[in-house]
Amino acid sequence: MNHSPVGFKRELRKLKQGRLTVMSEFKVRLHPSNEAFMVGRDELILDAAIRQGVQVPYSCRNGTCRTCLFEVKEGTVQPVDVEVCMISDQELESNRRLLCMSLCRSDIVMEKVQPRRRRNPAESVQ
Ligand code: FES
């Protein structure tokens, strides 16, 4: 995958259109259900869940509705395009991630959290 800003957006578009082959590398386990699925290194976590028929909450698939907000309990998740996502720096520091805008960097355990509706991602988390 090309990691320049232009190349990354092009590859991200291909991933969202299903035009990129995915090699599964990491295991995602949902807490507390223990349901698990595999995610490719360059595959968005939400896309992997949908591809494998795993029921996770989502709506917009572009980082704005916050429906897919999860907390990472174990492992490393890399957020992408955080400048356009509705997620605050405080949430990122608290290991919260939007599944539709995140890539796995290890096996992970995640738990669903209830999103607070906010207009500005720079607002603080209470
Ligand atoms: S599906 Fe809307 S923010 Fe992820």
TrEMBL record:
SUPFAM superfamilies: 2Fe-2S ferredoxin-like
All copies of domain 2Fe-2S ferredoxin-type, residue ranges: 26-116
Keyword Iron: yes
Keyword Iron belongs to the record: yes
InterPro entries: 2Fe-2S_ferredoxin-like_sf (IPR036010), 2Fe-2S_ferredoxin-type (IPR001041), Beta-grasp_dom_sf (IPR012675)
Cofactor(s) listed in the protein's UniProt record: [2Fe-2S] cluster
Signal peptide start-end: none
Record key words, sorted: 2Fe-2S, Electron transport, Iron, Iron-sulfur, Metal-binding, Transport
Entries under PANTHER family matching the protein: FERREDOXIN, FERREDOXIN-2, CHLOROPLASTIC
Protein's name according to its UniProt entry: 2Fe-2S ferredoxin-type domain-containing protein
Organism: Paenibacillus montanisoli
